[in-house]
Structures are given as structure tokens and as C-alpha cells.
Amino acid sequence: MLFPVLNPSTPCFFCFWLTSILVIFSHHGYGYNTGSTASAADHKYSIVIGAIIDANSRKGKEETTAMKIAIEKFNNNSNNHKLSLIFRNFTGELYQAALTAEELIKEKKVQVIMGMDTWQQAALAAEIGNHAQVPVFSLAASASVQSSRQIGRPTLIQMGSNVSEQISCISAIVHSYNWRRVIAIYEDDAYGGNAEMLTLLSEALRRVGSEMEYHLSLTPISSVVSDPREAVRQQLLKLLSTQSRVFIVLQSSIPMATHLFQEARRMDFMGKDSAWIITDSISSFLDSMDTSVIPYMEGALGIKSYYSNSSSSFLEFSTQFQKKFKSENPEEDNAHPGIHALRAYDSIAVITRALERLGSDDTISPKMLLKNILSGSFSGLSGKIKFDGGNLRNSNSLPFRIVNIVGKVYTELDFWTQDLENPFTREADEKNNGRNTTRTMNGTVIWPGYLKRVPKGWEMPTDAKPLKIGIPANTSFDHFVKVDEAQIDQEKKYTGFCIDIFREVLRILEQNYSVPYEFHPVVGTYDELVDCVYNKTYDAVVGDVTILASRSKKVEFTMPYAESGLVIVQETPEEPHKAWMFLKPFTTKMWVVTGALLVYTMFIVWVVEYRSNNPAFRGPWKSQLGTALWFTFSSLFFAHRETIRSNITRVVIVVWLFVVFVLTSSYTASLSSMLTVRRLEPNVTDVAWLKATKSVVGCDGDSFVKKYLENVSKFDRADIRNVSSEYLYPEEFQSGNISAAFLELPYAKVFINQFCKNYTATQLLNRYGGLGFAFQKGSPLAADVSEAILIISENGTLKAIEDKWFPRSAECSSSDTDELSLRNFWALYLICGATSTLCLLLFFLCLLIDFNRHQASTSDANPSTDGNVWMKTVQLLRFFHNGPTEISNERLSNLSPRSTGDEWISPWLSTGTPSDATEYPEVTFDVPEPPQISLSPATTTHT
After folding, report:
1. Which helix (H) or strand (E) holds 760?
2. Which long-range contacts (CB under 8 A, 24 or more apart) does 292-295 make?
3. Beta strands in 265-340 (DSSP E)
4. Average per-residue pLDDT in the chain?
5. What pLDDT, in 10s, does the model give residues 83-111?
6. Contacts of 180 by beta carbon, 8 Å cutoff, 6+ apart
7. How many C-beta atoms surround the C-beta of residue 702 within 10 A?
8. Mean pLDDT along residues 781-790
9. Average pLDDT over residues 801-809
């Protein structure tokens, strides 16, 4: 929030500047006194200093005493110059500062003006000083971040600290304790002087992620005639409607601060979980304040300007100051000098050092004096004195002390400097801070109410004022939040997934602090529920609220406890070609390759076993083909019974049976899965198809989905149907009222889990922030609840709650199985094919070797054997057909069946010369008749 410095439309603005202009013009023609007041007796050049102070205030009393000590010391030691001091007591209106400065310059011929309690008074006096070329020393804190030269006041010299530095310190403290919202309190000066401080504070807080919730302006104590305490109480009543309990007192007089803290304590604004920060305008007087007032401030943090109180120069000055101050102000109990006294003393020291550099010249021009004043650089009682554009450049590495008011005294906690990236010296820990932050003070803080942990800075719930939590009264999916008005027990009246998570989170928070709460069912949309938190009707919302960007601008969400997105739910179509379901486990290529491998294996088995004279693979060609096919197919079910003679065949069969085992197991598993879970094929293409076909879609009208469909997806309002309950969706689908339903991901999971056989969901259309709880902006509970959600997520509690409310259906637990393709078994097929091929090659190699041996033996007996290639081939085939050895008729008659005339004989094998017949005698098979067996009742005879 930004605040203007002065509003040109206000009467104060015109009054202020009209007075300034009149005073400036009235000084036209004024010159500078060049020394006509010099004393002829001592030949010292006299410099008259005019002091505009409030002599009745503690600050004015300290400044008066300090200036007198400094001037007395200089006059006693200087041989060339003499200082004289003229006081003017100023307690009137702002424009009186200009009139007083005019009177001092015109009538008293002062060469330097100093004092002023506020920056506005000093700025107005500087306007007079600019025209008369008179340096003006301001002892008030500057409210401008620009130098005096930059704002058009070259004669204004700033001796006080800059308010922006204190505000930077305040923002560092707020950030170190993770306070998200603060309340600024200040005593109004009636001239808009606090507006720039509020602007600086607002910007500083924004840089650290905090904000100003409210700023309270207190009527000036001088304007309150009757009862100032009652006036303060009436102003504090305005804070009862705020949630923040971090109070920053930017500017206040000591009497106003006294009434403020007394009433704040009576109204419980200084109770537990509250924090107070006071600036230098109050903390600088803690050493001199009435001890009966300080206990009202107990627990507050204060910012004090740093100065060394152990140096010899300070100790010497302190001794002189206390002696003189007591004699001049016997009514004051405490005579110790504060920062205001040190700055007043250093202001005189700046002038005396400038005069010493000028020497004994009787002629001192205003520009020369001002130049020497601004060029001064030395270590004063208040710190390093060096000017930059008229402002005091504080090069001290420790400009502010952070103090904690305890009882009737205060303790120093730490130092702060804006030159360091981390202004405080110690990392925060859980014991001191409650949760990890950036940096915190080194000392132990005594907080208001003697709280042992860092206050939340928020109005925390109590038994008398519990946390008001809004929950959706009517949800479309009651597994998340369900309100049963018939129940009296609160545990049974409010149930659901979200409610259980919140209660589990509170169990974790109760380890540090208690959170009394009460649920309030709200009938309305989720956006209206969020608005109830935004307008502070409720403190929080617990329920299935989706985290959206538009909602995050109004409330502060916790860490999501469930993911969220938008999906389309639709009916599952009947699966076509159900009669051919048994073919679906394998792809077409898979079936073709499997069949080819089967035929290839059958061929190799027949070739090798035929050569081995296996009677099971010989006989008529029809019988051989049937036997080979039967053997190969029966091996698919491990039902083959034929005898295998060749070891080569055994190798081929072993590899083939392994392939068969893998294929049958995979086929059985895939087919079983397909028969158990129906394949889900969407019948809705996408959102564009639904809009093009003017299809009616359903959604929960209380959620954001309806607005999303209208504003983002551009559905016609007539094509959107409100479905208020999860149990109404099947009815809407079956009646044809809707073609698809748009559901958030958590709801879609619940719905599909119940109706998995009839409905399916598409992939996510959009992702959102998830489901979370909503709190008011700046609430510290949001961060604590987020941390607790992470804890229950990591320890498995969140998963247990999810399984409790959303158990997996047994019939929906299986997943879809894709068809098995050649890609899944190519290595197995390659091994089987390669092994069979190698065995076939090995067989042919052995066959050729045997054939060559046989040829060699027959060529010795019949050298005239024909060597024609064709004949060689025919001879090889005959050799393959007849077997590896000649077998006698007796043995063959016992092994081979009787020739039936249907025996297959190759034409190649039946064609040849007589020599061929001699070389390869024909083998015949004579099978004898079976013996006759006669049976009689008495005996059995074998013939």
C-alpha cells in the first residue's frame, strides 16, 4: 500500500505552503552578519547559534544541557572564536517553526539554527535558512531517503538517523520471525509527516514477503484535552476486527506511548502470540523513562541507535552531563544522557571544528562556513560524523541495537546493520523459533505473556473464541466431506477424507499449541466458500477445495494433500469381435511366424527321423505327412508319443519344447487377463468433438468446472448439465442426458473405482494446484498446517486415510494387457530357428560323409560307375531313402509292415540301370502271418 506525502486537496497543504511562501518573500534582501558582534575586549569572532527546542520535554532538556556543555568547553579552549546560544521554546503549530526561525535570523542575527523535534519542522525552517544562507541543523530523524541537496535544501544538515534505516531493521525482524502481516501505529502530527514512513514501511515489508494489514493513527497528545487514555482506547477498538497481532509503533511521544501500552495491555493486545516493536522515538528514552511505565511494555522489542558508552570521552561527558542536568532539572529522576544529548553535543562539535579549520579570519562567509561544516569528519559521541549531501552518513558497522524490555529494565539482544546480507548473527532453530526461518536475534527473547516460543503474530484461537472453519454442506462426492445433521457427536456428524486429514493435522499441531475449532456447514459454491474466508466471515475452509490462481489472490492455501486435474469420464463401449477373442493375445505377425516355425521344425524332424529308419516316420506318404503333422502339433501340448531315434532330432525337439512352453504360458496369461478386464476404448474423441457435435456434458455446478467449460472451453451454457451427486451420473449416462462428464481427478478416481466396468476416464486435460485447505492471508496456521501435511504424507498416514475412504475394488484392480507381439519373443524364435538350422546342416554333413564312404566302397567293386551329377543326386536320394545300412529280411520283417501296394516310391528312385540294381539291392518287407491260436474250455494249444 502506498501513501502520498501530502494531498494537495487538503487544507493543511495550502496552509503549510502559503505560510512558507509568505515567510520566504518577507526575507528578501536579508544579508549575513559578517562579525559586527565581535567582542572588542577579547578580539574573538562571535558565532550566534539559535536553538529551537521543546524545553518542557525530556528530549529538549537533554539537548539544552548537552549544547551548553559543548559551548562552554569550546569557549574555554578557543582563542579566536566564541559561541553564544539563544534558545527558543517551541511547542506550537508547524508554521511557528518558520516564524521562530525568521525571528532568530532577522532580530537575533544568528548564524546557525539547530533543534526541531520533527522532520517537517526542520524542513520548513530550512526554507528560511536557504534564503538567508544560514545552516540549519536538524536533530530529528529524517523521513526522506533523499539527501538535503537532492530535495532542494542545501543548508539543511541532518544529524539524526534516517527513518528508512529503522524501517529496514523492522522489516528484517519481521522477516526473521516469518510474520506475514503487521499493524503500524503512529501518533499523527496533523501535517501528513507520517505518510512517507508508512510508504517506506509498506515497501520494506513487501520486499520480505509481508504486508501491512492496518495502520492506526493516534490523535496527537497535545490535541487531546479531556481524557487521552479514553481517546487511545477508542482507537484501539478498531484493531479488534484485525487478525494480525504484530504491532509496530513507528512514531510516538513518551506520554502517548505510556497511554498506548497501558490500554493495550488492558485490552489484551499484549497477550500471548502478540509481538510489539518500538522505534528509536520511544526506545531512546528507556533509560530516562519513569520506571512505573516500563512494565507495561514488557515483552516488546526496541530499536536503539548504537553508541559506545565505555569510551573515555563519553564517560567524561556523562559525568558533566549528570551534574549539570540534575542541577537544572531536579524533577527528573534519571540524569543519564541519551542519544539525543549526544547528537546535540556533536552538532556543536561540528560547528566548532569548522571554525577551527577557518582559523582567525574575521570575515567568514556563509558558503565557507557551510562548506567546512559539510567537509567535517570525526568520531563523535553518537558515532562517526561524516556528511553526504547534507545527510549524516553512518559508517558505523553496528548502527542499531535490538533490545528487549523485561520488567523495569531492558536487555540487549543483538545488533543490526544494513551493510550485512544477514543482519542478525545466529541461525534460527526450532527451540527458539518454532519453525526454520532465515536469521533471528542472538539473545533469548522474553515475549509478551512469557510465551516460550516465538509468537505467531496472529490472533490465535482460544476456547472462548475457537477457529471458525467453513466446510461445504452439500458435496457431490460425499467421500470427501459429509455432514450428517442427525448425529450429535461431532466426530460422527462431520466425516470424510478431508475431515480426517484435518483432524490428523491438528494432532501434530497440538504438540506445540492447541487449536480449538468449530465447523460451520456452508451451502453454496466453492468460490462463495473461499469468499467467506476472504471477507473474514470464517477463519479457514476445510474441504475438497481446488487451489486456483484466482482463489490464491484472496486466501492463503496450504500444501496440497491430493493432486487435481480435469478429465473426461465416458461410457465404455461393447468390445467388437468377441468370438475371436482367443486370437487377440498374439498379433498377426506373431501367429504367422509361430506357424512357420512349427512347419520348419516338422520338416526337420521328418527328414532326420526318416533317414534314421524310424518306422513311425516311414510308410505311405499320407501316413508320413500325418505323423509329422501330428507329432509337431501334439508337442504344443506335450502329448507326443512317437519314438525319437536320432540325437539331432532330440536337440531340435528340446529347443522347440522350450519355445512351446514359453508361448503357451504367455498365451494363457494374456488371454486370462483379457477375459477378466475388458479393454477400454474411448468413444469420445476430445473436447473439440464434443463441441462440434453439440453433445451435452455433465459436471458439478458448485465447483469451478462449470465456469471453466463456459469461459475456457467455450461450451454453450445449454450444453452443460449440472449433476449434483456422484450417484446420479450413471442414470444420466443411461438415459442419454449426457454424453460425457467433466470431473476433477480425485472425483474421477472415486467414480471409476465404483463403476470401472461401465465407464472410463481419459488422460488429464489440465493440471491444477491440487486440493488444499484455505486460510486468511497472512495466517501463520497455513504454514504450520502445510508442514503437518508433509509429515503425515511422509510417515504414511495420508496413504492410510486414502485407503480407508477410497478402497480399491477387487474387480477393478486388474490392469489392461496389450497383445503379445513378435517384438517380445524375437530372441526366442531366433534361438529356436538357428538351432534347428544348425542341426539340419549337421545332418546333411553326416549324410554326405556316409554317402561318400559308400560310394568309395562300391567304386572298388564296380569301377565303371557313372559320375554324372544327375545320377549322383539320384544316388544320394536313394541312399537317403534306403537308410544308413542294409538290414536282413528277417529283421526287416519284424520291423516293417507288409507292403500294401500304396507304398510311396519316388520315380527318381525307381529309375536306373541294371548296374544300379546290383549296386543297390532292393529291400523287400515280408511279414509272416500271425500264428493261429485256438482256445478250448479245457486246454490251450499253441501251433
Report:
1. strand 759-761
2. 293/258, 293/261, 293/262, 294/405, 294/407, 294/408, 294/409, 294/410, 295/407, 295/408
3. 275-278, 301-305
4. 76
5. 888 888 876 666 777 888 888 888 888 88
6. 209, 210, 211, 457, 777, 778, 779, 780
7. 20
8. 94
9. 86
